[in-house]
User: Fold these one by one.
Assistant:
Number 1:
Amino acid sequence: MCEQVNRMTDEEVMAVLQQTAAIRHGHFQLTSGRHSDTYIQCARVLEHPRLSYRLAQETVARLPQDLAVDLVASPAVGGILFGFVVAAALDKPLIFSERVDGRMALRRSFAVPPGARVLIAEDVVTTGGSVKELEELISDAGGVVAGVVSLIDRGGQPVFSAPFYPLIQLEVPSWSPEMCELCQNGVEIHAPGSRNLAK
Ligand SMILES: [Zn+2]
């Protein structure tokens, strides 16, 4: 954490997320079928390693000074790339969990040393269900979850108990198609989550 970091403002963070189309504004049909004026796809910024690393450095720079971390852990798949750059920024190892028969598990000989202080990294958190499962996995393994970081907090009520340090908070409102003013105004709709409709 002693590395010199060029700090970023919230506006600069948002600009990176928008320029890479990780956050899009317009008229979207979500996979739920509801409509929204905002669409989040964190994978788009994580296509760019250096930009991702800058965001990870900023995320780490905003953590409490006294937050001790021995290990970073991410839930597959979405969290792994962000976790990797966070781990690089902290100069700590990264492990990740993945689902085995529907349950979150540590495979690949990954281990949590007893008493290790673990920072969980996820790309986007709505309620953090996967984060909570990983939190329990780490506790059961004898580790201590020091905190949770994410690129984006979508403003749901987090179900995990560790302190949460999202880089930005962005509520994504959605509504039923019948209630959609964008539809009523004839604004072209995109369905980026669907393979069947044009992007
Ligand atoms: Zn609409």
Note: Residues 10-184 form a domain with the Rossmann fold fold (CATH 3.40.50.2020).
Number 2:
Amino acid sequence: MSALLEGKTALVMGVANRWSIATSIARALHEHGARLALTYEGERTKDEVEKLAGELGGGLALHCDVASDESLANLRAVLESEYKQINTLVHSIAFARREELAGKYYATGRDGFRIALDISAFSLVALSRELQPIIKPGGSVMTMTYLGSVRAVQSYNVMGVAKAALEASVRYLAVDLGEQGIRVNGISAGPIKTASARAVSGFTNILAEVALRAPLRRNVSANDVGNVSVFLSSDLSSAITGQVIYVDAGYSIVGI
Ligand SMILES: NC(=O)c1ccc[n+]([C@@H]2O[C@H](COP(=O)([O-])OP(=O)(O)OC[C@H]3O[C@@H](n4cnc5c(N)ncnc54)[C@H](O)[C@@H]3O)[C@@H](O)[C@H]2O)c1
């Protein structure tokens, strides 16, 4: 593989298991020469993430719950002492209660709305604030989003609203961090079978619809997304910021 990311350090957040999009992103970044640090949400995912970190160059596997400011501050302290600075931050994190990912959007509860927006959108803001002092100029922040931010996708409900907030945050953060030469972008991936995706009611119908109607007549893989994360981490994308890049086999451009 190329050494496109040689000398760069990437923090990848959101590995839960081998199906996670963040796993493919971490693998792709490693294959192109990046040194990695991974984070895990809790004890349930710790072993899997430590194992992956071992396979991918032996970088750090750190605990971070994005719902906790203290956890974010700890993350920064450890990164600063172990790596000094990082070049790439990959935010591949989202959560909504299963009951909010089915039925009517208007049935979303106040608490369910707050949790989905906090974990899936605000966390990017909080992480950007906490980590910006240790992201090198020329660095790249990226987050994962989905078409449900701009279209009403059945059952995606509050997560679509969270993704809209996330994509708006990408633009505001791009302006804020642009002063330091840091770029911020979103990758809007087509549907991929992961634990989070399976929580969306009727997810397999979405996969079937994309395979039928996308210009490329197929679904995307997490590897397709991993490749774009390499591009966004590298200097090849040095003038791209504040954008949402669709990695969806073209599905989003199709009308009738
Ligand atoms: N799978 C898809 O079809 C698809 C499509 C487009 C975008 N996305 C987005 O990609 C991202 C990754 O999702 P995935 O599909 O790989 O599923 P996944 O379940 O493998 O990953 C979600 C991750 O979020 C983490 N997370 C949740 N709450 C957290 C918290 N409080 N603190 C820290 N981490 C927390 C989980 O531990 C997990 O690692 C999400 O933002 C998702 O919305 C997924």
Note: The pocket of nicotinamide-adenine-dinucleotide is lined by residues 14-16, 20-22, 41, 45, 64-67, 92-95, 119, 144-146, 189, 191-192, 194-197 (CB under 6 Å).
